[in-house]
From TrEMBL:
Name of this chain's protein: D-malate dehydrogenase [decarboxylating]
Originating species: Oceanicola granulosus (strain ATCC BAA-861 / DSM 15982 / KCTC 12143 / HTCC2516)
Domain of life: Bacteria
PANTHER family: D-MALATE DEHYDROGENASE [DECARBOXYLATING]
SUPFAM superfamilies from the UniProt entry: Isocitrate/Isopropylmalate dehydrogenase-like (SSF53659)
Amino acid sequence: MTSNKLNIAVIAGDGIGKEVVPEGLRVLEAAAKRYDLSFDFKEHDFASCDYYGRTGEMLPEDWKTRLEGSDAIFFGAVGWPDVVPDHVSLWGSLLKFRREYDQYVNLRPVRLMPGVPSPLANRAPGDIDFYVVRENTEGEYSSIGGKMYEGTDREIVVQETVISRHGTDRILKFAFELAQSRPAKHLTSATKSNGISITMPYWDERVEEMAKNYGDVKVDKYHIDILTAQFVLNPDWFDVVVGSNLFGDILSDLGPACTGTIGVAPSGNIDPTGRFPSLFEPVHGSAPDIAGKGIANPVGQIWAGAMMLEHLGHKEAADGIVQAIETVLSEQKLRTGDLGGPLGTVDCGKAIADALS
Ligand code: ATP
Ligand code: MG
């Protein structure tokens, strides 16, 4: 059931996370006023390198208890590689949430926004507007495997790909439902069944099987090599693109890259069953090179807030936020420096909140 009272765990993390998250909250508060919602934001200092510095851990032992009752997690960015190696900070926080909360969907909207120059020639807003759906829990990123004859010239290294029926069907179901909810009703599956001869034909088989339940969705498949080329050459062909963990990973970085700056793209790590809280964050990281200067673009964080609202059943409010973002990005004088505008993080956040009210 959709509730108008939302309990949100807020984790700003490191670097520019601490600057853009407050702007995300500002816009969510503005959305609450306009759309009659109420937020209970609970801020947490863990999952940050500061916290690691104080405790030697990225998360407290009782982190699950502390996050209990949260409808979702609104996340900034984690990582401060000068102090804590990225694999320690990442595996100790974000990847733990992903696994423990079974956030098996990584969802990334890929949309060219007004005022953002695309690196692709002759592309305008409206030409690029699709979703990448990445399987987030299995596939090529299993830690099953091993080494033999280590250190000799007969050395062998093996790592398995895990494609389970359960894991495949649930990500496909999410992707088909998303496609069905969109006007184009078009799903593209990323595969490589001409080269990877066991797991990928199975993936294709499951796509065909699942398609039987969604007669109104047009389905096609591309091998990952040509698919990446088509993202660049014909991004207007796509509506919802689904891929395994590795293929989805590649596509979910390539997609936002085709839409210009990294500063505006959002991402959701979602458990569609609602059993666990889902986590919404910008695509960008903690950006140590610009942290503390007040110049980071807050749009990716704010858009992540819109995704969070949509996930929690408040589509109208989510659309309102995205519209406010578009209004602000359309005006050069309201953009941040990375987009050639004069504003800092806070003023850009305020402009979007104003556009919403
Ligand atoms: P990750 O740790 O997530 O892999 P990263 O640390 O490699 O990411 P980012 O932190 O995303 O990379 O930064 C990459 C580049 O983009 C940096 O030069 C950074 O300044 C810039 N950048 C990132 N986010 C923003 C933003 N919100 N506004 C402006 N510039 C940004
Ligand atoms: Mg980083």
